[in-house]
Specification:
Helices cover 37% and strands 22% of the residues. By secondary structure, the chain is α/β, with parallel strands linked by helices. The two termini are 26 Å apart.
């Protein structure tokens, strides 16, 4: 194994157990010999017998084989809790080098907590990176616990009884069933670890000063003012009382068990306070204090020390540099917000405390309430991914709102969000949307991609509703908290002002909504219910004289129309019309809308009347543009919910051949463009159709190649990574040998010679490895204007069959594929297969940093790439700090 792999494998990794505590996994070093021997000595006789199938002598020779694993012939991990070894797992490569024998041992005091399964997950992942494909275990028949670990892990294990032992064999490549089991274990474990944050029975505020205006003191007073259902304890240096509550000098002095500790101290004092709390048994910390990673290197090191301390004690951490946490189920307001949060149905997480407060103010003004609010700050430990796990099973939370500035584990976010979004809408606003860093991109695909393309792809595939402004975020939340998701995009506008209807119609079109005319039956009914001068088209204009009775007659007719999916009621106050009565009429109609959402834009100086909530909750918006935009986002959710999940298909590829090409290139350079022959071998290994070509080292060879492949011909530069059009390195439609020779002489050998392929739409397909999000697949209009048109769409690999179909059929590329201005339609199935193979390549080979296939000719009976540029680079080493 390479030194790089050994370094990665030896890094500590933290896992969460089913009881919510965390466990540190790492490779055992020579310095751990005494600790490992002590671990074996603490085992009961039965556990030692089951592990070794006997009673070996307890001495250095027993532990030497597991120390300092090379991760080639042998691998090993120990599990540590508070610096004490409580578990060990190891593998030894067998004669069949694709297989390894594996064994596990867990301290008797810590069995049945899921430690063995977590060890197996991590050990299998590391063994797979070493080229091992199968684990073999020799287990005594009465070692039921170990047999259960293999059974429950999710691997397809085969058991055979031989010689008084059970031999268990199983492939360690992760299958969909295995991934589902891991996700289920993660879900249970993360929720257990977060319970003390959302449902604590007791809270201590460390740094709660009796001085008014201090953050710690005001935060403690907020807990009291919110009428927290549990016990609250102020902790300060002198043990002074705060707001009449007896104070303590440390958490250890508190006579009762403390489940949650909130720390508000100068940054340099936080680690000591955290250690004291952890040693007193606290397993949930919220660190309000700033002065950590956000301040520079010194703060970053302080944050790392804090996290190491928390993990070593099996605890969890929110923050540092955060506003705090609130949970209405126990009336907890452990924040320094100016007032308590109203109860409701929204779970809200914000990476920015100040922006979180601003959003809360705006949400409260709109009548929205919360189940919980978490300011994650620097998110050293607890992140939005963890919070999604909590809110998934929280019956009170019906909508999730996220303000994000960065992602720690985008793939984990996508997996969890996709599952949660099937049940509850997730609204997200992403800060930091600039494209800095893409200017230096050297391929069309990389130039078109960027962090925002990756974020859009992530949210789209996971079913997350992305909003661009705070107002839009609150508007969409207001709609989804009160009304059902529309079944489609067909909207009816019912108004008492024609101009307002026109503005609303424009806004609906901009939001991707449709305004179909009412059905014939509905038009007839409307004609009887409305003045003759009114309009029964869409918008439906009832004229300025419309009153509550008008809305009461018209809205039920429109809502009964099977060709309408949602209604926006528009009202401008006029003389003599009772606004409260109009609101009540709209509310009554919405209550009998048969699952269709009803929205209102009530343009009154007095605001929306309370009567809009008298029967059904009808959300009201200040302007029709806001209502249309919110409905458009809700329609996006409806589209996603109706979309099947899709599957990642199995493809016949030669991964080993592709890996050999990459290894050959990286042996020559750690970062560089593949030569034409190498790129062809790589792409052919994944079954991507390429135009035939030859490499010619002289003009004579170019002429011979053109005659072999057929005229007319194309001659291109064979320089690795060259932008051929920009550099004049391509000559097309060469009809005879003389033209081929002249082109080869002008471009300069070596050159590539291809037959000229005519017809078909020019498309771009490519992939780029985003440093955070991983492989990103692009598809869009191609040719020399690809970047100018800029209409490529992106998806995160691996793509499902439906993801690939959406790329091929969507956007401007979809119009080209369908046949544009009289051109014949292209072969969609061939293009979908092409995109799926490209996705598989990008997902399998992280060393492929940029891959540009431009143009790809989409033909009526297939597709073919006529130019390829591939850059390979060693992927950046990523620290595996936690696995959930």
């Amino acid at each position: 194994m390479s030194d790089e792999m050994s370094t990665i494998a030896g890094e500590p990794t933290d896992v969460i157990l089913r009881d919510g505590s965390t466990l540190r996994l790492r490779a055992p070093l020579a310095a751990d010999a005494e600790a490992v021997l002590d671990f074996f000595a603490r085992l009961s006789e039965r556990s030692r017998y089951l592990r070794f199938h006997g009673f070996p002598a307890l001495g250095p020779k027993l532990v030497e084989p597991v120390l300092d694993p090379d991760w080639d012939e042998r691998g090993a991990l120990i599990g540590c809790l508070e610096s004490r070894v409580v578990a060990l797992a190891n593998w030894v490569r067998l004669r069949d080098r694709r297989a390894a024998e594996v064994a596990f041992t867990v301290d008797d005091a810590h069995q049945r907590r899921g430690i063995g399964t977590r060890l197996l997950e991590r050990l299998a992942a590391l063994a797979a990176e070493a080229g091992i494909e199968q684990f073999v275990a020799q287990v005594l028949p009465d070692n039921r616990d170990m047999l259960d670990v293999f059974r429950d892990a999710g691997f397809d294990a085969v058991r055979e009884l031989a010689g008084g032992e059970v031999e268990v064999r199983f492939p360690i490549a992760p299958t969909s069933r295995y991934r589902e089991r891991v996700a289920a274990r993660d879900h249970v474990a993360v929720r257990a670890s977060l319970r003390p944050f959302f449902e604590p029975a007791s809270v201590a505020v460390i740094g709660a000063s009796p001085r008014r205006g201090s953050i710690g003191g005001e935060l403690f007073r907020n807990i009291l003012a919110a009428d927290f259902t549990g016990s609250a304890y102020p902790v300060n240096r002198r043990g002074e009382p705060v707001a009449g509550v007896h104070g303590y000098r440390s958490v250890a002095e508190i006579p009762d068990e403390v489940e949650l500790a909130v720390i508000s101290l100068p940054a340099e004092h936080v680690p000591a306070a955290a250690q004291a709390a952890l040693e007193a048994g606290v397993r949930a910390l919220v660190v309000i204090s700033a002065g950590f990673a956000e301040t520079g290197e010194e703060g970053r090191e302080r944050q790392e020390r804090l996290l190491e301390l928390v993990r070593a004690h099996g605890a969890r951490l929110v923050g540092p540099n955060c506003l705090g946490i609130a949970s209405t189920s126990v009336r907890l307001n452990a924040t320094f917000a100016p007032r308590a949060f109203p109860a409701g149905k929204i779970g809200f997480s914000s990476q920015s405390g100040a922006l979180g407060l601003a959003l809360l103010e705006r949400a409260e003004a709109s009548g929205l309430g919360l189940t919980s609010f978490v300011s994650i700050g620097n998110k050293a430990d607890v992140s939005s991914n963890d919070l999604l796990e909590w809110w998934e099973d929280d019956e009170e939370t019906e909508i999730v709102i996220l303000y994000l500035e960065s992602f720690g584990n985008p793939r984990g976010f996508a997996r969890i969000a996709r599952r949660l979004a099937r049940r509850k809408p997730i609204l997200a606003m992403k800060g930091g949307t600039t494209r800095a860093g893409t200017r230096a991109a050297s391929s069309h695909t990389a130039a078109l991609a960027g962090s925002e393309a990756a974020v859009d792809a992530l949210f789209r595939q996971a079913g997350v509703i992305r909003t661009r402004t705070l107002d839009e975020l609150v508007d969409v939340a207001t709609l989804l908290s009160a009304q059902p998701v529309p079944r489609g995009r067909r909207v009816a506008l019912v108004t008492n002002a024609g101009g307002l209807g026109i503005l609303a119609a424009d806004a609906c079109e901009a939001a991707g909504l449709e305004l179909p005319p009412p059905s014939a039956q509905a038009r007839a009914a409307l004609a009887e219910a409305m003045p003759a001068e009114g309009s029964v088209a869409n918008p439906i204009d009832m004229l300025g004289s419309a009153d509550a009775g008008s809305f009461a007659k018209v809205l039920p007719i429109v809502l009964a129309d099977p060709g309408i999916d949602a209604v926006i009621a528009l009202f401008v106050p006029t003389v003599g019309v009772d606004e409260e009565a109009v609101g009540a009429a709209i509310s009554r109609a919405a209550a009998d809308a048969d699952g269709k959402p009803v929205l209102c834009a009530f343009l009154s100086a007095r605001g929306a009347p309370a009567s809009l909530r008298s029967v059904a909750q009808v959300p009201s918006f200040a302007y029709p543009e806001a209502a249309a935009r919110a409905l458009g986002r809700a329609a996006e959710r409806g589209d996603w919910l109706r979309r099947p999940a899709g599957t990642v298909p199995e493809l016949d590829v030669d991964r080993e051949a592709a890996e050999a090409v990459v290894a050959e290139a990286l042996a020559r350079s750690a970062d560089g463009w593949l030569e034409a022959a190498q790129a062809r071998r790589l792409l052919e290994a994944y079954g991507l159709p390429l135009v035939p070509e030859r490499v010619a080292a002289s003009p004579d060879e170019a002429v011979a190649a053109a005659r072999e492949l057929g005229l007319p011909a194309v001659v291109k530069s064979a320089a690795p990574g060259a932008h051929k059009t920009e550099t004049g390195g391509v000559a097309l439609s060469l009809a005879d040998a003389q033209a081929v020779r002249a082109a080869a002489e002008r471009i300069g050998v070596p050159v590539l010679v291809q037959p000229m392929v005519r017809g078909g739409a020019e498309l771009l397909a490519g992939a780029v490895q985003d440093p955070l999000f991983g492989p990103l697949v692009a598809f869009g209009p191609g040719g020399v204007l690809a970047e100018l048109i800029g209409e490529a769409q992106f998806r995160l690999a691996p793509l499902t069959d439906l993801d690939a179909e959406e790329l091929v059929r969507g956007g401007k590329a979809g119009r080209l594929v369908a046949g544009f201005r009289g051109t014949p339609p292209a072969d969609e199935d061939a293009l979908v297969d092409f995109v799926l193979r490209l996705s598989r390549l990008a997902d399998d080979l992280p060393e492929v940093a940029e891959l540009d296939l431009n143009p790809v000719l989409a033909l009526p009976d297939g597709c073919v790439a006529v130019d390829a540029r591939v850059r390979v680079a060693r992927p950046p080493q990523r620290r595996r700090a936690k696995t959930w």
